[in-house]
Design brief:
Pfam families (chain B): Oxidored_q4 (PF00507)
Distance between the termini of chain B: 61 Å
Number of helices of chain B: 3
Order of helices and strands of chain B: HHH
Radius of gyration of chain A: 22 Å
Structural class of chain B: mainly alpha
Number of strands of chain A: 4
Radius of gyration of chain B: 28 Å
Strand content of chain A: under 5%
InterPro entries (chain B): NAD(P)H_OxRDtase_bac/plastid, NADH_UbQ/plastoQ_OxRdtase_su3, NDAH_ubi_oxred_su3_sf
Number of helices of chain A: 20
Keywords (chain B): Cell membrane, Membrane, NAD, Oxidoreductase, Quinone, Translocase, Transmembrane, Transmembrane helix, Transport, Ubiquinone
Strand content of chain B: under 5%
Largest sheet of chain B: none
CATH topology of one domain in chain B: Methane Monooxygenase Hydroxylase, Chain G, domain 1
CATH superfamily of one domain in chain B: NADH:ubiquinone/plastoquinone oxidoreductase, chain 3
Largest interface: A-B, 17 and 17 residues
Membrane topology (chain B): Multi-pass membrane protein
CATH architecture of one domain in chain B: Up-down Bundle
CATH class of one domain in chain B: Mainly Alpha
Helix content of chain A: over 70%
Oligomer: heterodimer
Shape of chain A: globular
Largest sheet of chain A: 2 strands, antiparallel
Strand order of the largest sheet of chain A: 1-2
Order of helices and strands of chain A: HHHEEHHHHHHHHHHHEEHHHHHH
Subcellular location (chain B): Cell membrane; Membrane
Helix content of chain B: 55-70%
C-alpha cells in the first residue's frame, strides 16, 4: 500500500482513529459533553480530509484504487461529504435527545451513542468507496450492526418514558431480524455471482459479463438476490413492511440517520454497481427496479394518506421518495441521470433530516420530569408524535413551525425549495428516458403527497378553538437545535432559489 | 484458469450429481422405514407415566425453566467476540515470516484496537460479575 493510497483513504482513517480515541476517552472520562465534542471534531476532521483528497484527485484526474477493495473517486467523495454533514446534524440532534433522557450519574451510557454514530459513518463511507463484493458485505454489515443498538437506544436512557423504551426495543429487534434475513439473501446472491463469473471485484465481474455470450441465469439470479437486499435497505415496496414500525419506535435522531445515511449509502452503492457492471443493459434487472419504483411511489403515498402519527407519515413518505429517485436512476448510464440522482439525493437528505429533526426536537420539548423520586420523564401530552399535537404550532412557536413548513413544502415539491428542483430533475430525466409509466406514477404519487403534506401544514396553522391566548406556552428548544433547523432551512431555500450552485458542483464530479 | 460453469445446465448437473441424489433418497427411505416400522409394529398404551419425560429411569424433579443471570450472556458473548478475533491472529501466526514487517504492523494495529475495546468494556463494568460494584470514576 503506497503513501498515495493511504492518503486516499484518509477520511476512513480519521474516522477509525476517532472511534478508538473515543473508546479510550469514554473509558477514563465519563462525560456526555466531551464525548459529543470528540465525535463532532472527528466528523469535521473527516470532512476536511474529504476536501483534501478531492483536491489531490482533481490534480491527477484518475480515481485511486486502494488494495482492490476500495475505489476513491470524486463522486464517492461527494457522497461522503453529504453523509458526514448529515452525521454532524445527527450528533447535534442526538445530544438534545440524550441530554434529557440520560443521567450519567446512574447506569446509562449516553457516550455510546456517538461511538455507534461514528461506526455507522465508517460503514457508510466504506460502502460508498467499495469496489469489491467483500468490502460491500463488510461495510454493509458494519453499518447494520452499529444501527441495531442505536435503534434500541432509548433503553439506555434510564429516564426515558417507559412506552418509548418498549417501542425502541421493538424497533431494534425488528430491524435486526429482517436485516439479517435480507443480508443472508444478498450473501447467497454474491456466492451465485462468484459461481457464474469467478470474480468478486467489480472490474472482474464486469469483464466476465462482457465475455459471456448471453447473461447466464445463474448470474441473473445472483444479481436479483443482491438487488433484493439493497431494496430492503432502501425499503422499496415489496420489502417495505418494516419501515413504519422501525422509524416510529427508534429515537428520532436515529430515525433521521437510518433514513438519510442508511439509505443514501445504498443508493451510492447501487449507482456504482450498475455503472461499473453495466447492468443497465440487462432488461430483467431494470424491469424489476422499475416495478419496485412504481409500487413504492403509489403504495408509499397511499399508506401515508390517512396516517395520524407524524413519524409513520414521514416513514411512508420516505418510501415514496426513494421511488421517485429510482426514476432518475433508471434512465440508464447517462450523465444527466447521474446528475439527477445526486441532486435528488441531496434534496432528500436535507429535507428528511430537517423534518425528522424538527419532529424530534418538538417531542423533546414536550418532555417533563415527574415529581416522583424515580425522576422519570413523561410526555406532557398523550403523544407528541400525533398530528393533534401540531394543532396551532404556528401560534405557539412561529419560527419552528416555519422551519417544519419549509421541510414539508420541500417534500411536496413546491417551488422555491430544493425539493422542487429535485422533482423537476426527476421529470426531466423521465421525459428524456421516455419512461411514460414511471412518469405517470410520479404525477399520481406527487398529487397524493401534496394532500397529506398540506393537511399537516393546515393543522399547524389552525388556532386552538377553546384555549385562551395567554395559556398557550411556547415550545422551548436548545440553541444548538434551533441553529441546526434554521441552517437546514437556509440551505433548503438557497439551493431552491439558486440551484445553479449545486448543479455546477455536481457537474464537475 | 478457473473451471467455472458458464451456463446453468440441469442435464449435465444431474449427470454429475446422481450419486448424491440417490444417497438423499436413500436417507429419506431409511427414515421412513424406521418411523413406519415402529409405528406399525410398536405397542400403544396410555398409562399415567406415558407423557412424563424419561430421564434414565429417575423421576425428574423441579422445572427446567431455570433463570440464569443476565451477566452470563454478556460474558458469553464477549468471550465469543474475542475468541473469533483470535482466529485472525492464528492465520497471521502461520504466515508470520512471509508477511514480514508490514504484517507485524497490521497485526499490531489489530491487537491495539482489540485492547482498546477490552479497556472500554472493563472500565464500563461489563466484566463485573454479580451486579454493579461501587466504583469511583
Amino acid at each position: 500500500m503506497s503513501a498515495r493510497e493511504l492518503h486516499a483513504i484518509l477520511p476512513l482513517l480519521i474516522l477509525s482513529g476517532g472511534i478508538l480515541f473515543l473508546l479510550l476517552q469514554v473509558s477514563f472520562l465519563r462525560s456526555h459533553k466531551a464525548a459529543a465534542a470528540t465525535a463532532v471534531i472527528t466528523l469535521i476532521a473527516a470532512i476536511a480530509a474529504c476536501f483534501d483528497v478531492a483536491r489531490t484527485l482533481s490534480q491527477s484526474a484518475a480515481p485511486i484504487e486502494v488494495t482492490g477493495l476500495l475505489l476513491i473517486d470524486q463522486q464517492a467523495l461527494f457522497f461522503c461529504l453529504l453523509f458526514l454533514l448529515a452525521a454532524l446534524a445527527i450528533a447535534v440532534l442526538g445530544f438534545s435527545y440524550l441530554q434529557k433522557r440520560c443521567d450519567s450519574a446512574r447506569e446509562s451510557i449516553p457516550e455510546a451513542f456517538y461511538l455507534l454514530l461514528l461506526l455507522v459513518m465508517l460503514g457508510a463511507m466504506a460502502l460508498v468507496f467499495s469496489n469489491h463484493f467483500a468490502s460491500v458485505f463488510l461495510s454493509m454489515e458494519l453499518m447494520s450492526l452499529a444501527l441495531y443498538p442505536m435503534l434500541g437506544f432509548a433503553v439506555t436512557g434510564d429516564l426515558s418514558p417507559r412506552l418509548e423504551q418498549m417501542y425502541s426495543l421493538e424497533s431494534g429487534v425488528k430491524y435486526l431480524l429482517l436485516s439479517a434475513l435480507s443480508t443472508a439473501l444478498g450473501l447467497f446472491g454474491m456466492a451465485l455471482i462468484y459461481a457464474a463469473c469467478g470474480a468478486l471485484d467489480f472490474g472482474g465481474v464486469a469483464a466476465a459479463v462482457a465475455n459471456l455470450p448471453r447473461t447466464p441465469s445463474l448470474l441473473l439470479s445472483g444479481l436479483t438476490l443482491l438487488l433484493i437486499t439493497l431494496a430492503f435497505k432502501l425499503s422499496l415496496v415489496p420489502f417495505h413492511i418494516w419501515t413504519p414500525d422501525v422509524y416510529q419506535g427508534a429515537p428520532s435522531p436515529v430515525t433521521a440517520l437510518i433514513a438519510t445515511v442508511g439509505k443514501g449509502a445504498v443508493v451510492a452503492l447501487l449507482l456504482r454497481l450498475f455503472t461499473e457492471l453495466e447492468l443497465f443493459s440487462i432488461p430483467a434487472l431494470t424491469g424489476l427496479l422499475a416495478a419496485a419504483s412504481v409500487a413504492s411511489m403509489l403504495v408509499g403515498n397511499l399508506l401515508a394518506l390517512m396516517q395520524k402519527n407524524i413519524k409513520r407519515l414521514l416513514a411512508y413518505s420516505s418510501i415514496a421518495h426513494i421511488g421517485y429517485l429510482l426514476v432518475a436512476f433508471l434512465i440508464g448510464n447517462s450523465a444527466f441521470g447521474n446528475e439527477a440522482v445526486l441532486y435528488y439525493l441531496v434534496a432528500y437528505v436535507i429535507t428528511t433530516l430537517g423534518a425528522f429533526g424538527a419532529v424530534g426536537l418538538i417531542a423533546d420539548s414536550a418532555l417533563a420530569r415527574t415529581a416522583g423520586s424515580a425522576g422519570e420523564y413523561v410526555y406532557t401530552t398523550t403523544s407528541p408524535f400525533q398530528r393533534d399535537f401540531y394543532r396551532g404550532l404556528l401560534w405557539r412557536s412561529p419560527w419552528l413551525a416555519g422551519c417544519l413548513a419549509a421541510m414539508l413544502l420541500s417534500l411536496a415539491g413546491i417551488p422555491l425549495t430544493i425539493g422542487f428542483i429535485g422533482k423537476f430533475y426527476i421529470f426531466a430525466a423521465g421525459i428524456q428516458g421516455q419512461l411514460r409509466l414511471l412518469l405517470a406514477a410520479v404525477v399520481i404519487g406527487s398529487a397524493i403527497g401534496l394532500f397529506y403534506y398540506l393537511r399537516l401544514l393546515l393543522t399547524m396553522v389552525l388556532r386552538e378553538p377553546q384555549a385562551p391566548l395567554d395559556s398557550i406556552e411556547s415550545v422551548r428548544i436548545a440553541v444548538s437545535g434551533r441553529l441546526l433547523l434554521i441552517s437546514l432551512t437556509g440551505v433548503l431555500l438557497i439551493f431552491g432559489v439558486f440551484p445553479q450552485i449545486l448543479i455546477d458542483w455536481i457537474y464537475t464530479l | 484458469m478457473l473451471n467455472r460453469p458458464t451456463q446453468f445446465d440441469p442435464a449435465t448437473l444431474v449427470q454429475h450429481l446422481w450419486p448424491l441424489i440417490v444417497y438423499g433418497f436413500a436417507v429419506l427411505a431409511l427414515i421412513a422405514l424406521m418411523l413406519g416400522l415402529s409405528y406399525f409394529l410398536g405397542q400403544r398404551r396410555r398409562d399415567a407415566a406415558t407423557d412424563e419425560p424419561f430421564e434414565s429411569g429417575i423421576v425428574s424433579q423441579g422445572s427446567a425453566h431455570v433463570r440464569l443471570s443476565i451477566n452470563y450472556y454478556l460474558v458469553a458473548i464477549l468471550f465469543i467476540v474475542f475468541d473469533l478475533e483470535a482466529i485472525y491472529l492464528f492465520s497471521w501466526a502461520i504466515a508470520f515470516r512471509q508477511t514480514g514487517l508490514l504484517g507485524f504492523i497490521e497485526a499490531a494495529i489489530f491487537i491495539v484496537i482489540l485492547l482498546a475495546g477490552l479497556i472500554y468494556l472493563w472500565r464500563l463494568g461489563a466484566l463485573d460479575w454479580g451486579g454493579k460494584q461501587q466504583r469511583n470514576l
